[in-house]
Amino acid sequence: MNPIRITIALACSYFVFAILLNSVGTVILQAINSFDITKTQASVLEGYKDLTIAIVSFVVASFIPRLGYKLAMLIALGLVALMCLLMPSIAQFYAFKVLFAVIGCSFAIMKVSVYSVIGQVTDNANQHSALLNTIEGIFMLGVLSGYWVFSWFIDSSNAQNTAWLNVYYLLALLAGMAFITVLIAPIKVPQKATLRTSQLAAFIDMLTLTYKPLVVIFIISAFLYVLIEQGVGTWLPTFNNQVLKLPVDISIQLASVFAAALALGRLVAGQILRVIGWYSLLLSCLVAMAVLVLLVLPLTHEIDGSQVTSVFDVPFAAYMLPLIGFFMAPLYPLLNSVMLSALAAHQQAAMTGLIVVFSALGGTTGSVITGFIFDKFSGQHAFYLTLIPISLLLISVTLFKKMTVNLGAVPEKGTI
């Protein structure tokens, strides 16, 4: 086995899906401009992506090993490459619904396959953790790159121009290159001994967990977090364009600050957790998020960035709002870590399934609610709305902390 070739295949595949998955905010803005649809109509794209990920992750998780990880990855990359090739010629809003459904379905297959293949090329927990963090780091690099890739194809002087759809030819090429790396990678077929768990057994395990009060509080917390993250992240390009009056390409480029802030926040939090407790960090982050919203949004009322020609010339307040990602970043991985640490090893797979499902529901709900408020009232109203789930998170995280202390299963300090 050649672990380098396999690692390259995994990294290339994840990079492509990072761009595609996180393009939904950019596509929403461009769909509003190019196809004359409402924000409420555009908001459903998040659901086509997230709900498909949740459903397919659950339905096909036990089937993928039987199919073979390599074949599954090739199918996933082939499907998105085909859809990307078709997008410029279709140029209709309904095609984006199909595209994001295909992306969600394919990513669910890819994620299960990638996480499983990592176990084939690592010999111990340290190697596994190192490779997984590397792959996830490349995913974040893809997220950041995606904003800039899309902005290069956008005609800022003519918002209705659909020439930006040509970006999908480039994405099809990238998917094709990833397809080749997977094709030549020596990925092994799973042994029969690993194919014992049935989908019914996995479903029963998930249902059993929902009877635990600790799990219920965690699910609520995870749902609220993703609701905030997707509500802000998905609609930030539209906020930059329609509220701050920034050109479309710069609006999209500026949204990359949010992704960068998320990445930096998780790196910094990993070090902070060495000296303070996880609960103290979560409370501090939630308060900081609320303060940032209250301080920055009033400043956005007077901004007119229509004459801005570079992302480096935008008003200071425009940089401040995406920085909410820095304080938001530690919440989700830390909640997941604490929850999984509180469960027995044999329950963690079922818990992971619940995390995927309720994260998807939270992301879809956040995007739809934010889009509706944005459409009916204003972008400021839509982002002020985040104060409600932030307040609810303060309550749910406090209850979560008390329950974990009562169980005595989770240490006060930890790592992300």
Produce the secondary structure layout.
Blueprint: H1 3-21, H2 24-35, H3 39-42, H4 44-60, H5 64-67, H6 69-90, H7 93-120, H8 125-152, H9 167-184, H10 199-209, H11 213-242, H12 248-272, H13 278-296, H14 316-320, H15 324-328, H16 331-341, H17 348-376, H18 379-384, H19 387-407
Describe the largest sheet: none
Q: What is the overall shape?
A: globular
Structural class: mainly alpha
Mean pLDDT level: 86
Distance between the termini: 31 Å
Please, what is the oligomeric state?
Answer: single chain
Give the H and E element order: HHHHHHHHHHHHHHHHHHH
Q: How many helix segments?
A: 19
Percent helix among the residues? Answer: over 70%
- Topology, number of strands: 0
Radius of gyration: 21 Å
Proportion in β-strands: under 5%
Describe the structure.
The protein contains 19 helices and no strands. The chain is mostly helical. The protein starts with a helix and ends in a 9-residue tail after the last helix. The mean pLDDT is 86.
